[in-house]
Amino acid sequence: GDSVTQMEGPVTLSEEAFLTINCTYTATGYPSLFWYVQYPGEGLQLLLKATKADDKGSNKGFEATYRKETTSFHLEKGSVQVSDSAVYFCALSDGTGGFKTIFGAGTRLFVKA
Amino acid sequence: EADIYQTPRYLVIGTGKKITLECSQTMGHDKMYWYQQDPGMELHLIHYSYGVNSTEKGDLSSESTVSRIRTEHFPLTLESARPSHTSQYLCASSEPGGIYNSPLHFGNGTRLTVT
Fold this sequence. Notes:
The structure holds 2 protein chains of 2 kinds. Chain A is mainly β. Chain A has strands at about 5, 10-15, 20, 25, 30-40, 45-50, 55-60, 60-65, 75, 85-95, 100-105, 105-110. Chain A is built from no helices and 12 strands. Chain A is globular. Chain B contains no helices and 11 strands. Chain B has strands at about 5, 10-15, 20-25, 30-35, 45-50, 55, 65, 75-80, 85-95, 105, 110-115. The radius of gyration of chain B is 13 Å and the shape is globular. The chains are: A mainly beta, B mainly beta.
């Protein structure tokens, strides 16, 4: 079945450091890919998405490119801020799976001032 | 700002009590979902609905039940709460039309503690 694997955390960075959170997926069809963010005490929010190969999703300085050849959707940000401290979830949605969303296990990011 | 509302935000209750977690959305979405989030953060789909009078069990077995009598309302009920039900419960919805690239919209969750 479909699955998402993302790097384990926690990830601890200093402010203005470069961020990469790795995400790879397995899917039988042609999924859409998402990154969601969860701030403390809140639900998940959509951060960015990509619906087909080579698409780049971007939002709030975060970017991720849909790489079909490597089945990856790594999240990057050039300069993190303390306010980026949160849990990040990679996810896929595949129409062949009944339109359900499959989530990775989440990666907690701490950014120090 | 959330267009999907969950109440209560926090609930502490004794073993054996019946509870209902409320979830409402104002976006007219057909599809709604309940996820259980364990302390390790992982999300498990426990129920979903494709519209009024449609409910399905998710990937994680759950003793809870759901109903979908109105499009905007998707409550989750535990008939007899147990300490193993202690968790965070997240409600979500997604746009109609059957397109699988619709993202999920989440509420802020209910954190349930059963003593």
